[in-house]
Amino acid sequence: MPSTNSTSNNYYETAANVPTVDISEPIQCFKRHEKFSFRAAVDFVAMAIKAMFPVYLGIRIDYPFIPGYLKHHGLYYFTWVGTILAAEIVLNNLIDWKTVLGTDWLPGTMFFMAGWLFYYVGLSLWMVVVKVPLREKVGRAKFIMISEVFFSVMWAFIGCGFRAFCQSVGTIPFPEAIPDVASNLVGFILCQTGWFFKGWACTLTGYNSYFLRDMLLDTPNSHFVESSLYKYIHHPTYTAGYVQILGAAIYYRSVPGCIAYCCIQACILLFVHFVEEPFIDRTYKASNYPAGVEVGEGKKKKKK
Hints:
Oligomer: single chain
Distance between the termini: 36 Å
Shape: globular
Order of helices and strands: HHHHHHHHHHHH
Radius of gyration: 21 Å
Helix content: 55-70%
Number of strands: 0
């Protein structure tokens, strides 16, 4: 696997080869050391992070923070994660995208555009066009299950797509004066920070809120009170949580990726303003609350 620490533009010009997900490579790093040492351990950890980082971007590690999620959905979750891992290995190691499509940058760009089109257009159509007739046809319980699968695939797809975009569109790389180790470290920390805020939001809002259940069923739920994280950050998963996207762009030293992050952040806030907020205002007015639903001061906590 070519090194991702090269400061030359060759890294960005040969995206078909960089970086593949080779799970065996972290183990191979020990062969470069005659015996176990602290340096060998650090080398192993660094190589493991680099090998698994593309997969890490495609899975939702915030889900396990939802109270009770793994207890009821553990098999489904780990099957899903394993499928993504297998797909990443196959797509990166067995398919030469440059040979198939004749270009370095087109595969990642197509993947990225398709993912976000899936997100903004697909999610909007699901809520506006598909939701009511499908819910009436299959029933509320099965509709929730189908929607969860749809959302999970969608969120995994956009994560993998953004990573592919950062890898394949490198015509404007970071200045060589910025060392690779610095960009890798900052990018990884930002990704961890984003997942931290998403995990925190999961523990506060619970399963029903995080998967847009009130929007899917057009029924307010009782778990919306303004407190803790939501008291200080209005949309933590859409703002603080989205720094993971910026972290991925910095990790891959992709200026186009950083620009794309700004566009993504703007688009998701527009989606919240025009799609989610109207539902919140319409559904959670005081006159619409059923008995027993407690509401904190100010706006209720945001979903996802």
